[in-house]
Amino acid sequence: MGAEFDALVRREAQRWLTLRTHDGQLPISSGDLLDFRIEGRPFRLMDAQRGIRKPRELSAALSIRTVYTADGRQRPYDDAVGPDGLLRYKWRGEDPDHAENRALRTAMDEGLPLIWFFGIASGVYQPIYPVYLLWEEPQHRQFVIDPDVARGLVAPGERVGEHVRRYILRETRQRLHQPVFRATVLRAYEKRCAVCALRHAELLDAAHIVPDREEAGIAAVRNGLALCKIHHAAYDSLVLGISPDLVVEIRSDLLEEIDGPMLEHGLKGRHGQRLMVVPRSRAERPDRELLEQRFARFRAAG
Questions:
Q1: Whole-angstrom distance, CA of residue 243 vs CA of residue 223
Q2: Are 240 and 231 contacting, i.e. CB atoms less than 8 angstroms apart?
Q3: 75-109 residue pLDDT tens
Q4: Which letter does DSSP use for residue 23 in this model?
Q5: What is the CATH number of domain 3-183?
């Protein structure tokens, strides 16, 4: 149908996803993705069976997909970060001329934006867009993928300076890892604050137990807690601690302080109480060793 229709689909798909996910704050189910229409007719944004979506009306791939896998399980394709800080997306199979690999190559050659559907649960995805394919690494059967942070900064085969690598890692964490981490953690906690059970997703954050800037600060649900804005700020500032036994403690000097109802009920009232919400799946509950690391800092601060 031509370049104009291709551009229309990509533009309208991203606009629609922005509206349906509240500007990326919420994930979307595979069922809800079927609601997308272009020129009044249904148009699939993601392939139900394949990782790469290449509609017959377009000359290049429209989207890619990474399936959800629970912590500790291996994904069927190992999409990893390279030494330059950039992400890799594996070919479909081993044949470079497979139709889906050719569709990705066309998107790369034409500089077309893709949508990356990143699985956070079975049938639930966090869409990341736009992402671009920068170059191909045939020896590793993969493409170099960029969440729109590195174009013009890096080139294939060139050594990437440490300051550029740090920039790429930081921006990729913000544009890809943080939205996926947030969606995964809020899903595990059923969109409720672990400390007070507040249910409004727009008032919740995914807090790291060990900060993500540290080696142990993995972007996995077992290193996360769903916390409301107040309790997240209290946790980050070491006003509030959570023991390895999932008991909330408030810093001793605040327990002696007299202030308004938020301090009295929102913080002091939670002292000595167990978390009100934990994930149903044991594999997704807070990691005890990570809690011990963070709780030791809280105790030292108090």
A1: 14
A2: yes
A3: 434 456 777 788 899 999 899 999 999 999 999 99
A4: T
A5: 2.30.280
